[in-house]
Every structure is written in C-alpha cells, then in structure tokens.
Amino acid sequence: MQLIDGKAVSAAVKLEIAEEVRKMLAEGKKRPHLAAILVGHDGGSETYVAGKVKDCEDCGFKSTLIRFEDDVTEERLIEEVEKLNQDADVDGFIVQLPLPKHISEQKIIEAIDYHKDVDGFHPVNVGRANLGLPAFLSATPAGILELIKRYNIETAGKHVVVIGRSNIVGKPVANLLMQKSYPGNATVTVVHSYSKDIKEQCLSADIIICALGKPGFLKADMVKDGVVVIDVGTTRVPSTETKSGFRLKGDVDFEQVAPKCSFITPVPGGVGLMTRVSLMKNTLLAGSKAIYPAR
C-alpha cells in the first residue's frame, strides 16, 4: 500500500506556480490577483479561506479578502460580485460556499464572470469542461486528477466508481475521467443514495473516488485487493484529543480499507490540500490569460 501524499504534491505544485509567477514578473507582466468573498463566520469556511490567503503568499499572488456578515442581502452580494467582475486588477475570484439560506448559491455563481470563475462552478466552465474544451476546472476534481498524474496511476480502460453525484465533485470528476486524455479513458460508474448495488459496483472497481460526506462509509468488505481509493470526505467529528474539539474524518474506513489498497489518500493530508492548490493553478491560468484571452 502506498499513501498518496497530498501535502507533498501540493507543496511541489506551489513551488512550480511560484516559479511561473517569477517569470511573469521578469517579463513585465502583472502579478496574478485572487479575491475571495466570505459571508459570515462558518468555522470551516474561515479555515479554508485563511489557507487560500496563505497559499497566495506562497505562490507570489496578490490576494484580497472581502467580508460580509450573515445578514447581507443577496442584492448587496451581487453588487460586490459585479464590482469584482469589472475590476481589471482582479484576475479571478471566488465566493466561499456555503452561503446563508436566504441567498441563492446558484444565482451568485451565475453572476460571476466566467472569465474570472476560478472555482470552475459557472455553467460556461462546467459545459466547456464536459465537452473537453479549455476551461477552469472545478478545484477538487482537478486536484484528484493531479494526484493521479503525479503518482502515475493508470486510468485507461479501468473501472472507476464515483460515490456521490454532487455538482462540485461527483459529476465533474466522473466526466473528466471519461475524457479522451490522461487521466481519462476510464469506464465510469456513478453511485449515489438511490443506487441499490453500491457494494457490488465498488467490489468491481479498480479506482474508487468517495465523495459522499458520510464518515467511514467505505468499508473493507466493499473493496477488492489492489484498488486505488481517493477519499474526498472531510467531515468534522467531535474529538477530545484536539484543541479545536473536532477532527476531520474521511468517507473511508481508513484503518480497515488501507491494507487492501495499492494507493490511498489520507484525511487530512490528501485531496483537501489539492483542492486549494488547484485554485492557485486556476488563478495562474486566469492571470496569464491561458484559458480565455484578454478582452
């Protein structure tokens, strides 16, 4: 069993991005600029955004954090989105999810200029990615593909089972692994809460991507020997062993499943860090106009 080290890979990718930024600046180009809008004080979102700010420093980006309280109106938030759309110095920006219930997340996502949609959630980027066209890829699926590439895991002709069908992970990663490229050319099965044969499908899988949000869901009796397991789950569970009072737990019963795997990601230290670094890669692409030409 080989552990897929997201910490080491993300650090390597950030060094590569920082080198690209140095080259851009040496050529007289502007420093890439990522902005983030954070609504409220959700603990997970606060931690995640703080991590993104630190990543920007490591990569040599300029970063801006814009905060609103939970009671901000949808109209005011859209106003701020439009301001960032029009700000020529901002190359890409995100609106951190989840948002308060009185705000439509989809409406906010669609208000973002897709040229600056470095989260890869706008329908234009989703559609282009589905067609295999250049686009900002959703950060978590892009991070998963980067791990597969860095560890030279074969995907062509392999049976991949994706557990979960979210718009953020399940659907896009399934689509990307069907593309005529590497990683890709896989036979992909998506299972979800209505699937009646999840265990049977998992037992036939060469690669399992678990993105369900249910801690410890994937058990040892659901996987075959030699399987590759990518655990996307990051659920906070109470813990008396940490200062924060919680710890992160993945969707995979790691201790039981790991001995049967050829490769497996840990939680934490796996996909989560790659999600952050994929956002940095998208920001670099936005700053260099590599996906969409300057307007």
Please tally the helical runs, counting DSSP H or I stretches of 4 or more residues.
10
Shape: globular
Q: Residue share in helices?
A: 25-40%
CATH class identity of the largest domain:
Alpha Beta
CATH architecture of the largest domain: 3-Layer(aba) Sandwich
According to CATH, what is the topology of the largest domain?
Rossmann fold
**Structural class determined from secondary elements:** alpha/beta
- Rounded to the nearest angstrom, the distance between the terminal CA atoms is 49 Å
Estimate nothing, just give the exact number of structural domains: 2
What would you say this structure looks like, in words?
The chain is an alpha/beta fold. It folds into 2 domains: 27-124, 3-Layer(aba) Sandwich (Rossmann fold); 139-272, NAD(P)-binding Rossmann-like Domain (Rossmann fold), CATH 3.40.50.720. It has helices at 6-26, 43-59, 74-86, 105-111, 123-130, 139-150, 170-176, 198-203, 254-257, 271-288, and strands at 2-3, 33-39, 62-68, 92-95, 159-163, 187-191, 207-210, 227-231, 235-238, 246-249, 261-264. The strands form 3 sheets. Strands 1-11-8-7-5-6 form a 6-stranded parallel β-sheet. Helix 7 links the parallel strand 5 and strand 6 (187-191). Helix 6 (139-150) packs across helix 10. The mean pLDDT is 94.
